Amino acid sequence: MSVPVIVLAPDSFKGSLDAPAVCTALETGLRRVWPDVLVRRCPMADGGEGTLDAVLAASGGRGTRAAVTVHGAGGAPVAAGYGVLGHADAAVAVLEVAQVVPITDPAAMRVAVAERDTRGVGELIRTLFDRGLRRFMIGLGGSSTNDGGAGMLAALGMRLLDAAGQPVPPTPAGLARLATVDAGGLDPRLAASSITIMSDVNNPLCGERGATAIFGPQKGVTADEVARFDAGIANFAGLAEAATGGRAASRPGAGAAGGLGFALQLVGGEFRSGAAVVADLIGLDRALAGADWAITGEGRSDAQTLLAKAPFVVAQRARAARVPTTLVSGAVDPASLAALGDHFAGAFGIAPGPITLADCIAGAEALLADRAAELARVFAAAWARPGRGSDFP
Amino acid sequence: MSVPVIVLAPDSFKGSLDAPAVCTALETGLRRVWPDVLVRRCPMADGGEGTLDAVLAASGGRGTRAAVTVHGAGGAPVAAGYGVLGHADAAVAVLEVAQVVPITDPAAMRVAVAERDTRGVGELIRTLFDRGLRRFMIGLGGSSTNDGGAGMLAALGMRLLDAAGQPVPPTPAGLARLATVDAGGLDPRLAASSITIMSDVNNPLCGERGATAIFGPQKGVTADEVARFDAGIANFAGLAEAATGGRAASRPGAGAAGGLGFALQLVGGEFRSGAAVVADLIGLDRALAGADWAITGEGRSDAQTLLAKAPFVVAQRARAARVPTTLVSGAVDPASLAALGDHFAGAFGIAPGPITLADCIAGAEALLADRAAELARVFAAAWARPGRGSDFP
Predict the structure, then answer these.
(1) What is the pTM of this model?
(2) pLDDT tens digits for A163-220?
(3) What residues of A are in contact with residue B376 (Cβ under 8 Å)?
(4) Is residue A294 within 8 Å of residue B382, measured between CB atoms?
(5) Residue B326: its chain A contacts at CB < 8 A?
(6) Residues B305, A354, B370, CA angle at the centre, nearest 5°?
(7) Which of A 309-328 lie inside 8 A of B, CB atoms?
(8) Which of A8, A317, A324, B331 satisfies CB 3.0 to 4.6 Å to A345 for a cystine?
């Protein structure tokens, strides 16, 4: 029996396995059924944590990794990794805000969110300017900050002043006292640069669907802080827009990474689906060409998955290449199966039977390999029989 | 796209869904993906509860159902259902001991196991003799008794006496006092009959792997009763063998249904795999001919499944017909996946993610439909592509 060519393009299972580990577990399972299966590993990401690793892993010899020490969200120094693809004028810097202000940094999370800022992101960009880089892909997602991107803009030369003309810190607490924004000192290299923002968040900067209301609470913004922080960011955004002559607060994605999506778009950044950019950077379409089956996945799948999350982008690219895509996630919301069924050739969790969430997370690697093996048996059973048509759901 | 022909041949999910309900749930799921799929419903059984229903459901117009009131295990009257297939000399009576002495009968279970017996099974057979029937298929399994089949033999004319020549009851308590067995009064119609025993139990009558040691505890035999009851049954068996000139205690299946497997073999019954007999009676091989996929399942699958349980028999018959069989059970033991993989084209539980056993049982119907739908999407994805060979695992 000939063996299929299978593309493995999962996102990470957040809190459990990174995307390369998910690929390895899937491959382990598949090889139980097809020892000589042809596997193309394409660990995915969505602009958040893991984006840099995914892009560098797929770059072959074209990518290098380095780090710069900058201020973390809470003020302590962090070694922020970044990548460079290509050389000289064609060089592209790949950044990930989760490398600078990660929500997984316990030290930063001990500082109140009112005092956290993104100045480290601006410091990193400035350093890369100094090294001659002018093209940037910046992954948003996984940030601990809610400063509207004020910290980054401040580190790039924007001055934030109170009513007495004194500087205010670029934090939610500082923005409450903000009276004047002076954009005259913004680094002129911004205007000469190309910035692509990678995000899976379409939210605007402020309001009911804004950064503070939707993503603030998971960063520690309390119920009675939401309105205050949101108003402070709205005030900052209005002043910054007036000072620069730009408009960005109402654009989709302005609310990504606590408002970094606003600040980066204000200085010319182009907003794109993080997973789509990653798919391009890792050459997913090339991997799918001529493949027979794709498997993707994520920690938990539900209706949100269809809002440009990595598995959805994989399914779309695969459909264009006429490759069926099966979804294998830590868990799948049963209520979303019908909607997922329009895009995926089957959606599966990894639970083998009654099991607790903790056991499911702890055993994810083995359970995932098991699930892949059993699905391979089903695929093989149908695959081995004479073809009866050419469509798949 | 053409649609596959799919055979649905599950056992019941004990404690949750009977086999026809499992078929319905599977079909509901499959039709989400293939509205016009061709389904052949073959609800299975293994000789235990559900066997009579499965056989009658598959019999079309050939089968009739009736009932006779006999003594239940605890002495109270029970209406014991039975079936008759065919007519006149070709008529076959289909019996199920779970119709007479079911472990699911709360009234009988309130009587101590030491006082329970199987005389109702003998009464039922005698009544059917009176009605002219001489061919019997008797499903063992799901019994509440541990009397070595003494009750059934007593009802058919065997006399059990103590040392003083007084009758003893055919119960574990009575057998403790048994001194003499007189087989002279055994119904002569037994010798003129054909009896096929359907069971999924290979155990001998006595000893470490015997009826009392292995199946006694779930019927209420206490730890300190095991040796005593086992000795009483061994004594009875030796006397009964001597009285009849037969040998049956050490045969495989003698330990089925608390020793009814012994008693029925002693009077000429032929022991067979219950699931295999049911497969024959319901015409499983005909249903599999020309089918593209079979789905089977049971409440819980593990290494025991491969000991002639219904799903295993389905997989064997399907393999002979070159039809791949996928296993969908309430839960699947992860440690048994490798062994199951030699026989099944994929083995799956129905848990959608972290879930309790109670929720899994309560939601079994919907979860099963979901699992069938998602597996159908995988099958369809591979099915739709050009065939590359002809084997399946």
Answers:
(1) 0.84
(2) 999 999 999 999 999 999 999 999 999 999 999 999 988 899 999 999 999 999 999 9
(3) 346
(4) no
(5) 377-378, 381
(6) 85
(7) 324, 326
(8) A324
